[in-house]
Known about the structure:
Layout: H1 8-11, H2 16-47, H3 77-102, H4 108-131
Amino acid sequence: MTVLAGTAADSAGQGPEDYFAGYSVVGLIAVVGILFVAVAFSAGRLLRPVVPTPEKLLTYECGVDPVGEGWAHTQVRYYVYAFLYVIFAVDSIFLFPWATIFAATGYGAVTLVEMFIFLGFLAVGLLYAYKKGVLQWT
């Protein structure tokens, strides 16, 4: 009578050595990639000419010589518009999955309450933006 030793994974050729071999290939590729980038940056640093001149240190803007200071004032309302867009984009991201779950049995009432709480927070943010006059285009 012969007794077979080993597990089902060993008999299928899926031992621990094979499992870690897959990770070693990924690790080797990552190391080669990091070395490639390091060698490329080092070679560039060693081979490039370093001759700083005042013209090279100027700010370059499409071939036009810079005039005035490098500091420019930006209207804050553009950031507020971007912030409002992000709020409504997140709103749409959450409303579509809620709408699909709402039809499932057992989740309807809970989902509806969560949706109205979330819409309440958005309404408060929209009301705040309206009171501050952000939504008026001037």
